[in-house]
């Protein structure tokens, strides 16, 4: 700028002398005017503050309308176009129904001495294309992200229904950003700067409110659909279709439909507003005609107009197949005013004729019309944004659906009264048949005696079969018992004991104990198969077979669990198997632990009486879960330490009042008996739990436990 100043003064050989003073002063005056003009057109940066959690900046940004839609970022960000941007005086920015491109220029400054992160939210979902530009390392503007209804939803860098951009600022840094927007419908949106934490809390609140609204609409749809199925009254079907159309409109307008349902199909997001509007309005007119009985209660010309209106909206449903959204959206907005107006007139006429159903209908439809008109007028740029314009459709449709429910209930009461009259007539007819029934009673009594005899015979047959099944279960129980370890692995410095008690004769809990060929390593295995009885026992037997070569893999119990899982695939029939596998080296006290979704192994230290729990990562064995990696943890036992493995049947045992024994009480029980030898330890723990359940011979679940004591 200084060079420009001096070159301007020296142009034409002008020197600083008194004889050139008039020309010199003229040039200085021109320069002063230029500097003043440039200051007038300069764009002030929006100051940021980490203390301001939320700030609307719509009135502090600059915008440029590109009617030719040919402007690129290089020109838009050039000095030539800097003065063409106009400062916004709108909050929110409201460009109405437009097909033009709009450029938004945002200059932000961090005046603080620390880094700041802000989230920029463009709080509107239905924009065809939004290009976001930011300065690169060389100071030039470059495209960061393009998203909108013209793109699949996953291209967005932030998974949010609105357009969200994360902005980072270094201390005292000023950054300029550009937004380029184009859409085929209404372009009304606020620009908001958030602190990240505040934004996420606000977003959670919005999702909660919309979730309640969606829940109300879904309940209304299902409830009235059930009424339609029971009454076969076509007016209920029209009402359900109307609510479905409103629900679909909201899914489009909020962006949740694009986010969760048709995220890969942007053309649906651009056209479904028109489709759902056609469904909603056509079914509304049909529902009004049926519910208000317009053929008898209004004049013929108005009823013909209603027929023509629902036919137009029915055609609107299929219009996106042949026409672009730039046209169909505007048509749907225009027709959205026609249909409610005619229905409101028809309902008013029926009301003044004292047609009883019209009372509720008119009240409910008034809520809907008021809220819907605000939304339509907002998109037509005829009203500003307000709570009614933003959230009115949620409130209005919810209230109208609720009041319509009362209207339909009133109609059901009328039908109920008619039904009671019909039933009274039927009762009188039945009374005439009473004498005939008395004559049939004698013959029926004989048939009852014969039938009772047949039932008694069937009962005896069932009891005989039950005894046979009981006998077979007892044999199965003996077979399963034979699969349990009959001889415990021997080591001079180890004591081991176990218990395995099925709920029925057979169960899904299983225990196995082995040692390697040298006797220097012991293997301990415990598992729990979902379910009870024969099915669970069969799976437990297959687990036993899958452990046939276990002794070869004692050094890596995690690998052995994965190998066992591979052998069980295709044989579990939907069952889950949880298991814990342990390898123990008596000479060193070292222990290896692997887990497949089973309760944790509990280690009670002799030295201080405290307990430790071990549950390495690993999910339960099931055919529908992905192949996991089973982690192996290592630890060491010292003299007198006890390691306890158990199934969930122990802490989840229930008393006759339904109370659970509980994990805390179970852990205290283990600590109380930690001084006992393993055999007595198992007996004492099982005995206490059976005393709690008051069921010594059976329980609510299978129970198994293994106790290992290291003698040093």
Automatic annotation (TrEMBL):
UniProt KW keywords: Coiled coil, Hydrolase, Membrane, Transmembrane, Transmembrane helix
InterPro entries: 7TMR_DISM_rcpt_extracell_dom1 (IPR011623), 7TMR_DISM_rcpt_extracell_dom2 (IPR011622), Bact_Sigma-Reg (IPR052016), PPM-type-like_dom_sf (IPR036457), PPM-type_phosphatase-like_dom (IPR001932)
Domain of life per record: Bacteria
Bilayer-crossing regions: 24-46, 177-194, 206-229, 236-253, 273-292, 304-323, 329-352, 359-380, 392-409
Location of the PPM-type phosphatase domain: 491-710
Stretches of the chain forming a coiled coil according to its record: 412-439
GO molecular function: phosphatase activity
Name of the protein described by the UniProt record: Serine/threonine protein phosphatase
Source organism: Leptospira saintgironsiae
């Amino acid at each position: 700028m200084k060079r420009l100043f001096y070159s301007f003064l020296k142009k034409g050989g002008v020197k600083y002398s008194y004889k050139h003073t008039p020309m010199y002063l003229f040039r200085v005056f021109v320069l002063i005017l230029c500097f003043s003009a440039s200051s007038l057109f300069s764009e002030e940066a929006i100051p940021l503050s980490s203390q301001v959690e939320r700030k609307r900046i719509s009135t502090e940004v600059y915008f440029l309308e590109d009617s030719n839609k040919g402007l690129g970022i290089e020109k838009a960000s050039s000095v030539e176009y800097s003065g063409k941007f106009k400062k916004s005086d709108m909050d929110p920015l409201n460009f109405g129904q437009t097909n033009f491109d709009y450029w938004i220029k945002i200059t932000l400054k961090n005046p603080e001495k620390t880094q700041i992160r802000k989230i920029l939210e463009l709080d509107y979902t239905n924009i065809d294309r939004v290009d976001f530009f930011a300065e690169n390392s060389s100071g030039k503007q470059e495209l960061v992200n393009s998203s909108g209804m013209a793109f699949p939803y996953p291209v967005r860098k932030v998974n949010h229904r609105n357009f969200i951009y994360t902005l980072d600022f270094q201390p005292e840094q000023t950054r300029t950003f550009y937004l380029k927007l184009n859409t085929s419908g209404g372009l009304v949106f606020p620009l908001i700067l958030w602190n990240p934490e505040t934004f996420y809390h606000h977003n959670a609140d919005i999702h909660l409110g919309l979730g309640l609204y969606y829940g109300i609409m879904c309940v209304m749809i299902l409830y009235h659909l059930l009424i339609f199925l029971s009454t076969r009254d076509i007016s209920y079907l029209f009402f359900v279709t109307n609510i479905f159309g409103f629900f679909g409109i909201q899914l489009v307008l909020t962006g949740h439909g694009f986010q969760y349902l048709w995220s890969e199909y942007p053309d649906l997001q651009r056209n479904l507003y028109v489709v759902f509007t056609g469904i909603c309005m056509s079914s509304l007119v049909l529902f009004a005609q049926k519910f208000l009985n317009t053929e008898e209660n209004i004049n013929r010309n108005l009823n013909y107009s209603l027929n023509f209106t629902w036919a137009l909206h029915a055609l609107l449903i299929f219009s996106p197949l042949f026409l672009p959204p730039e046209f169909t959206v505007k048509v749907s907005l225009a027709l959205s005013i026609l249909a409610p107006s005619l229905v409101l007139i028809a309902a008013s006429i029926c009301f003044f004729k004292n047609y009883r159903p019209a009372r509720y209908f008119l009240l409910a439809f008034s809520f809907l019309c008021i809220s819907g008109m605000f939304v339509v007028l907002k998109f037509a740029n005829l009203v500003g944004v307000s709570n009614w314009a933003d959230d009115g459709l949620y409130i209005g449709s919810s209230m109208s659906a609720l009041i319509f429910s009362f209207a339909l209930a009133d109609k059901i009461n009328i039908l109920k009264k008619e039904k009671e009259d019909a039933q009274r007539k039927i009762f009188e007819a039945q009374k005439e048949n009473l004498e005939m029934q008395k004559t049939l009673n004698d013959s029926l009594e004989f048939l009852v005696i014969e039938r009772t005899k047949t039932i008694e015979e069937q009962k005896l047959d069932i009891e005989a079969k039950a005894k046979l099944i009981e006998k077979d279960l007892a044999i199965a129980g003996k077979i399963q018992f034979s699969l349990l370890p009959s001889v415990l692995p021997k080591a001079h410095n180890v004591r081991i004991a176990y218990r395995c008690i099925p709920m029925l004769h057979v169960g899904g809990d299983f225990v196995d104990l082995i040692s390697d060929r040298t006797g220097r390593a012991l293997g301990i295995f415990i598992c729990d198969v979902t379910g009870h009885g024969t099915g669970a026992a069969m799976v437990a037997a297959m687990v036993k077979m899958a452990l046939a070569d276990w002794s070869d893999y004692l050094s890596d119990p995690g690998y052995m669990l994965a190998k066992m899982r591979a052998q069980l695939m295709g044989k579990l029939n939907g069952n889950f198997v949880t298991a814990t596998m342990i390898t123990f080296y008596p000479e060193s006290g070292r222990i290896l632990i692997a887990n497949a979704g089973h309760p944790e192994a509990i280690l009670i230290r002799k030295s201080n009486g405290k307990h430790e729990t071990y549950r390495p990562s690993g999910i339960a064995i099931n055919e529908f879960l992905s192949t996991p990696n089973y982690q192996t943890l290592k630890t060491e036992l010292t003299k007198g330490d006890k390691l306890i493995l158990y199934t969930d049947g122990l802490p989840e045992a229930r008393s006759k009042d339904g109370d659970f024994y509980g994990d805390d009480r179970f852990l205290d029980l283990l600590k109380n008996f930690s001084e006992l030898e393993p055999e007595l330890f198992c007996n004492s723990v099982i005995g206490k739990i059976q005393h709690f359940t008051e069921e010594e011979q059976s329980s609510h679940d299978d129970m198994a436990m293994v106790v290992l004591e290291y003698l040093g």
